[in-house]
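Feature request disguised as a bug: please show the residue count (146) next to [Ribosomal protein bS18]-alanine N-acetyltransferase in the output. Example input:
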Amino acid sequence: MTVTLSRLRWWHIAELLPIEQDLFGDEKWSAGMFWNELSSGHFYLVAEDEDGRVLGYGGLAVNADEAWIQNIAVRRDAQRQGIGRRMLEALLAEAERQRARAVLLEVAVDNAPAQKLYATYGFEPIGVRRGYYQPSNTDALVMRRD
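Example output, currently without the count:
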């Protein structure tokens, strides 16, 4: 399968919503949240297959010299094919391009595969946000890479 990464545009948002629903359920982002991210000028990528079908997306917000990975999501039927890794690498490259000295993210404490991926890229746990994900009240592990 050929996968292309490109900038997320407003017309992609409708295709993100079913992925959000499937992966995150009641904790999914709304269309308005994605619109807000784009209107704020944050850097978002979309992964598409050769037919233009959205397979995943990821976002980065940079403020001064600090960057936050907002999200990385890959459709269940496209997982374990390196798409999340490619998006993470592209987000890290953008953080470097924007001269961020640190990149941070939050990940559910029960999402061991994502934590393992982030650790392979030098992210280290620095704290926990209790009850961060709502309505499940799941804690978030905060990870940082300098």
